[in-house]
Amino acid sequence: MSAESFIKTMNDGYTFKAESVKIGVGILNGATVPEAGVYLPLKTMNRHGLIAGATGTGKTKTLQVLAEIFSDNSVPVMMIDIKGDLSGLGAPGALNEKIAERYKLLNLDYIPEAYPVEFLSLSAEKGTRLRATVSEFGPILLSKILGLNDTQAGIVAIIFKYCDDNKLPLIDLKDFIKILQYTSNEGKKDIEQLYGKISTTSIGTILRKVVELQQQHADQFFGEPTFEVEDLMRINADGRGMVNILRVTDMQDRPKLFSTFMLQMLDELYASSPEEGDLDKPKLVIFIDEAHLLFSEASDALLQKIETIIKLIRSKGIGIFFSTQNPQDIPANILGQLGMKIQHSLRAFTAADRKNIKTAAENFPLTEFYKTEDLLTQMGIGEAMVSLLNEKGIPTPLVYTLLCSPRSRMDVLSGNEIDAIVSQSKLAAKYNVSLDSLSAYEMLTQKLEQAATGTVIDNKQAGKKEKTILDNPLIKSAMRTATTTLTGYIARSILGSLGLGGHRRR
Ligand SMILES: Nc1ncnc2c1ncn2[C@@H]1O[C@H](COP(=O)(O)OP(=O)(O)O)[C@@H](O)[C@H]1O
Ligand SMILES: [Mg+2]
């Protein structure tokens, strides 16, 4: 194929009406073609994407480059950093011989740059703590995460309703466990009178699954203060989108907790973001590195939920980019919804590998310039096959691309550098406080203690209206101090009973 027709095809394919950013240059017959720039149109970046390739081929650096591009263009970013190798975004890169050579081929100047980063954490790791309450999960999502069947999910729905009706806030897993125990013991008669028979065996199963979640240290995630997702959408004073890096290096052996968190966050983002018309660029882009972890232990119900959210969330201007070794790690229904594909080199060791490569090649647009299947195993580091959606939603021509290098540091930040960033963070100051408000656990414990010691006044005998647990003076005073939480909770409960789910809404 001639270089002229290659240049023409790429120029036609990668010229866009709205803003676009160069990510690399095309390669033909083993040589870069400087005239064949490869551009990323910001407008279609809510159509999601995939960055795939074998270990060491450049996936994480590609994420880094894309995050820089979004931040530069006032698009905030959230990065799920499973291996802890994205912190370098917070410091400027350094020019070396290799990078100088690459940028010469790219026909671009290399300008080192540090990006405004915010470190987030689900556990005791450094950064702003992300937490959510059990009631914010709502019965449906919680049941999905626990992998419950319909009967068990029905019980969870009843328990949520009972807690709503009796103003028992479900904040953390301790609350949820307490109410489950209460339902199968002291509260059984009461609750069954209201809602019908509840199987103790089913409650036992639910309890077991909650404990399983707890064993993955989910306790650290359920609680208060809850993270407001709009805090992910901040723009820096200099107009750059904030790069929120969620450090979850301790999550690799806890896939359940990871998918729990991801789903809740996506659900919350979906529920709290307004429907957007035709935006020129996304409002937020989420990168999920090592995305196979999200799917590896997910139940069918959970997968379906992820699929639905991914389908719907793009109309809210939110793009999701998955990074994983093999495209086949992503369930077909989700893979089919990813508009941008950056495929780094794959390895062909086994028969299964070769089959995967064939499938990957077949999923790319047809090309007259390359033997896609062969090329898929032959590309160098920081090179990839690229195809994305143009502004009409049509795939751009497949192009073998030499990609830019990050302008921020390719290596990680030191512990001290991370500490310095966290200590300056307004978000960390806002969220890294501990709230211990009165919730179902304390309220039920007290109720049971009172029953045991006989301190509860028999209201009927006293001729007063039936008292609720909330009339207890101790609880009343505690409630006064927890008004904000409870007001929010009650508002949410009302929304919940209107069928609006367990979400915080503005
Ligand atoms: N775009 C790039 N420009 C320059 N060097 C790169 C680029 N991509 C990858 N590299 C080099 O390859 C190494 C591995 O890349 P990485 O992104 O960590 O791979 P992966 O995430 O696929 O395992 C990097 O540390 C860097 O030295
Ligand atoms: Mg990586």
UniProtKB/TrEMBL annotation:
Q: Which PANTHER family match?
A: SLR6007 PROTEIN (PTHR30121:SF6), UNCHARACTERIZED PROTEIN YJGR-RELATED (PTHR30121)
- Give a Pfam family name: HerA_C
- Record-linked InterPro entries: HerA_C (IPR033186), P-loop_NTPase (IPR027417), T4SS_component (IPR051162)
Q: Which organism is it from?
A: Haoranjiania flava
Domain Helicase HerA-like C-terminal span(s) in chain numbering? 31-501
The protein's name is: DUF853 domain-containing protein
